[in-house]
Design a protein that fits this description.
The structure is a homodimer of 382-residue chains.
Chain A: E1 4-11, H1 22-37, E2 44-48, H2 52-56, H3 61-68, E3 75-80, H4 85-99, E4 105-111, H5 118-125, H6 141-156, H7 164-174, H8 188-193, E5 196-198, E6 201-202, E7 212-220, E8 232-241, H9 256-269, E9 278-280, H10 286-295, H11 304-309, H12 326-330, H13 334-350, E10 362-369, E11 374-381
Parallel strand pairs in A: 2-3, 2-4, 9-10
Antiparallel strand pairs in A: 1-7, 1-8, 4-7, 5-6, 8-11, 10-11
Helix pairs in contact in A: 4-13
């Protein structure tokens, strides 16, 4: 397998883009990534998206976006793994370059959610769960997170308020990210008073659904120095799955796919969790942040909130997370989020993270699909 | 790149499966493919599907199908390229094995269309076109095919009846395929009297939308002899795209993506159209069969119907097409069709095509997404 590097990144602000369509957002991110790589042409495009069929009656985003970005008659396909679709597209771009089939590849994650009303968008989001056995019984993504969080507090003897540091940390970091949807800090007191979405999941436990697009340019590591920006190596790219419905899992509070995907990534990169300088995790809900830290070996079972309370997830902590705001403050445009995570990792590894810069040589991103049935992990290094 | 072979195939009958859900159909095809390969475990699963989100409120088919097929915690992702989604999943499986990232890979194409009424299914199918500039203006897939066919008759001085041999040939071959939706021949007279769908596209010009699933097992060619069935090599796997909206194309009667995808495939395999013994093309509409033959070098511009009328597309002709019924008679379960084509090619190349068996060493399959904006070509050989 050829080694693969990232030589270009681009992103739109995550948020409510009333004047921009799905194709506009994708093209904006792609143009930024091509400019960053000092490139005009690529050999292939892989698009990560979850809901454009349901929300905008548009499938076939590979051809659509290649067309509207003026990329010519290149190979272009869409990959979907629910909320992890963006990371899945990165995985596919990685395979295309690693195999030798393609040399210079664009990966774009895009989601346009504000073309539908919030209720429709939320219902469509449920299609990442088991439709027959969860969604059609009335469960939504926030409801599943609520059940998991409630069980967690019961099982491990913690309180709802113990999850506050995840939201506070994400918002503190998002305040310095010009691409974040919410660029303002919140306090633990505000968290305590936040309105409930699905008890005990409050507004400040749930990342906001929104519009957005992010893109990266991949190429073989041996030619990476020819491009405009400082290359970042993909040291690992892995996917694992779990039972789709939470009630089918042996332990609803252990993210088996996240665990396996991380283990495979550590093995590929020849490292362990102790070598990882930052971890962009899937904090769609604060409970998922805690469970991800535990599954990936950064905290013991039931101790995810402790790690957060001890300040270890902050920029100066042992394992900084959500360093550019995470899904919580940057916003969660579902099929784009996995690519935003990679863009943010690259930003840190290049030393371009401004006020949020941490010292780092090795970073990990992990994206979850549905309530954790798919986990896709990338380890990047300079 | 490692060489890749197909060592297992499986399929359900294409048709109306009122008692089987999407996940049931996928599992049926997968079990058949695993049995054919004499295998119980695989390393990864790639699923081709177009419309499960719209029609059954279920996305995240990678994790769902890996779960329900009992495949364990393997890598599992879905790929989408409208009607070419199945072929796109084969392309992704090919990249995973060729790269060395995975050794034994399942590819499954599945579509469940009868859970929605025909109008809803037809509208959802339009999401493979340009939603904003074609579908929302009232165009449907049959309507676009009607415009193209009408223009073709005008441009090249042929009649609607000249397309009859495509339908007659497909139905003659489908009559001997136990997995085909329509296992009965039709006559040129019946074609002449068929009811119009979108003038001049009649019922017998349009392939029927339906349910179905097909699966293949891929592995490195060097280990292919270890499995249960006679291996078939993937000599080429290519993707090309064109402008999404037909009105944006320089020439609406030339399938640029089909042309480029075929050219790239010929180059990869080191062959030309003269070496191809059979061609499983995308006959969702008879006009697309004619245009595909022309774009891929089997007929001159405007001579696709001539080739058919001269009997050259029949089993004993120069370039047999739709040898197991094609989309027209086997049925067109959108995101599954591209995998059915591969299964049918393998059936021929193994010499297991029964009454429809032709002498062949090299076969080509081409799947089109939307009205030809994506074309995915595979060349297989023994």
């Amino acid at each position: 397998m050829r080694k693969v590097s990232i030589v270009g990144i681009g992103q739109t602000k995550a948020g409510e883009h009333w004047q921009r369509s799905l194709r506009d957002l994708a093209v904006d991110a792609i143009k930024a990534a091509l400019q960053d790589a000092n490139l005009e042409r690529v050999d292939a495009l892989y698009v990560g998206n979850m809901l454009s069929g349901e929300l905008t009656a548009q499938q076939h985003l590979g051809a659509l976006i290649a067309d509207w970005a003026g990329l010519g008659n290149i190979e272009a396909l869409r990959v979907e793994a629910a909320d992890a679709s963006g990371a899945a597209a990165v995985r596919m771009g990685y395979l295309a370059v690693a195999s030798g089939a393609q040399d210079v590849v664009l990966v774009c994650g895009v989601e346009k959610m504000t073309d539908a009303d919030a209720e429709t968008a939320n219902a469509a989001w449920s299609s990442g769960m088991d439709a027959e056995n969860e969604a059609l019984q009335g469960l939504s993504m926030p409801a599943i997170a609520g059940l998991m969080m409630h069980r967690y507090t019961h099982e491990f003897g913690v309180q709802r308020q113990d999850f506050a540091p995840f939201a506070v940390n994400a918002h503190a970091n998002g305040a310095n990210n010009p691409y974040a949807m919410y660029q303002r800090p919140i306090s633990a007191e505000a968290y305590a008073k936040a309105g409930m979405v699905a008890d005990p999941v409050s507004m400040f436990d749930a990342a906001p659904l929104c519009d957005g697009a992010a893109a990266v340019v991949l190429c073989p590591s041996e030619t990476a120095s020819e491009f405009g920006s400082k290359p970042v190596r993909i040291r690992a790219a892995t996917v694992a799955t779990d039972r789709l419905a939470v009630h089918d899992r042996k332990d609803p509070l252990f993210l088996q796919a996240a665990y396996l995907s991380a283990q495979r990534a550590y093995q590929q990169a020849g490292v362990g969790p102790g070598h990882i300088d930052l971890f962009e995790l899937h904090d769609a809900f604060t409970i998922m942040a805690a469970l991800s830290l535990e599954a990936c070996g950064f905290a013991e079972r039931g101790k995810g909130t402790h790690l957060a309370q001890e300040g270890e997830i902050a920029l100066q902590g042992r394992i900084p997370i959500s360093t550019m705001g995470g899904l919580k403050a940057r916003g969660n445009p579902l099929g784009a989020s996995g690519v935003y995570q990679i863009v943010e990792l690259v930003t840190q590894l290049r030393g371009e993270a401004g006020a949020n810069q941490i010292g780092c040589h090795l970073g990990m991103a992990q994206s979850l699909g549905g309530s954790g049935a798919t986990a896709i992990t990338h380890i990047l290094g300079v």
